[in-house]
Structures are given as structure tokens and as C-alpha cells.
Amino acid sequence: MPTAPAVHPYETLTTPTGQRVQIDTAMVSIIRRLWNLGYATTGCCQDVGEATAGARATRARPLGYGADSFIDYHRGWALLKLPLPDAMRLVAALTDTPAFAERVRRRWQPGSWRMNIPLEIDGLAPDALLHFPGIQIPQLAEVLQRT
């Protein structure tokens, strides 16, 4: 579900609600499985740093985010954006799997995940951003397939 312009190769899929969306090819199996498990998704990216750099390079005006330090930090990180209840349900499910339990429980360790819930004027944003190392994409797809 990248924003225009697409930086990564993608497939166009139909969401459970019938909307046609572009999904980064590396994320397709994860997104399909999440949808099959009843999760809603509102965005994804297979490499946030590269996508941000690509988006920044195509715009005449600044993005409002995406400084060099942001891009450098997020290179190699994947993103899943889900409604907050679904994000919490996914993280809870992953704590029950040997492959991801420590990654989602322990902060600031190599390989650990980050959850960002933006603040809005009226409280928390409705969606959570789950960042995780992109090298975990195949393993996450495999774990979700077994779920």
C-alpha cells in the first residue's frame, strides 16, 4: 500500500473490502495471510528508508519528514500499518511463537520490533506502525502461514 510514486516493485491486490491496492512484492505473502486471518491493514512497506529516500527525491517540496538521519535509520526496516486493535492482536499472537516472542517483547535489542502509535490532537491515531527488520519478512510470512 505504498504512497505514490511507487519505489519498490509491487503487485496490485484486492483487499477484503474490494479496494485495489499496490503491495510491495516482498510484503505480498504477509498481507495476504493477514487478510485471511481477519486482520485489517492500512499500509505496508518492504524498506521504509529506501521508500522515503525515493519519495523525497521525486518531490519539489519537502515531505515534512524524511531527513537523512530518518532515512539512514529506517534502511532495511519493513513496515506494517494496522488499526490499533489489530496491531495489538498481531503482537499478542507473535508473543506465542518461538521465532518472534523475544523480538516483540524486548525493546531495543538487535532484531526487536518497534511499535509507533502517533499522537493526534484528540488522542492516539487509529493506526499503529509496526517496524521490523526487513530480513525477517520471509520468516514472518512462514509463521503467519502456520497460524
Quick recap:
By secondary structure, the protein is of the alpha+beta class. Helices cover 35% and strands 23% of the residues.
Rg is: 15 Å
Helix content: 25-40%
Compressed to H and E, one letter per element, the order equals EEHEHHEHHEEEEH
User: What value does the average pLDDT take?
Assistant: 91
Strand fraction equals 15-25%
Low-confidence residue ranges: none
Label the structural class. alpha+beta
**Strand numbers in spatial order across the main sheet:** 3-4-8-5
Secondary-structure topology with pairs:
Layout: E1 10-14, E2 20-24, H1 28-36, E3 43-45, H2 48-57, H3 68-74, E4 77-83, H4 84-94, H5 101-105, E5 114-116, E6 119-120, E7 123-124, E8 127-133, H6 137-146
Antiparallel strand pairs: 1-2, 3-4, 4-8, 5-8, 6-7
Helix pairs in contact: 1-6, 2-3
Describe the structure.
- The chain is of the alpha+beta class and 147 residues long.
- It has helices at 28-36, 48-57, 68-74, 84-94, 101-105, 137-146, and strands at 10-14, 20-24, 43-45, 77-83, 114-116, 119-120, 123-124, 127-133.
- The strands form three sheets. A four-stranded antiparallel sheet has the order 3-4-8-5.
- β1 (10-14) and β2 form a beta hairpin.
Question: What are its keywords?
Answer:
4-stranded antiparallel β-sheet; two-stranded antiparallel sheet; single chain; 147 residues; alpha+beta
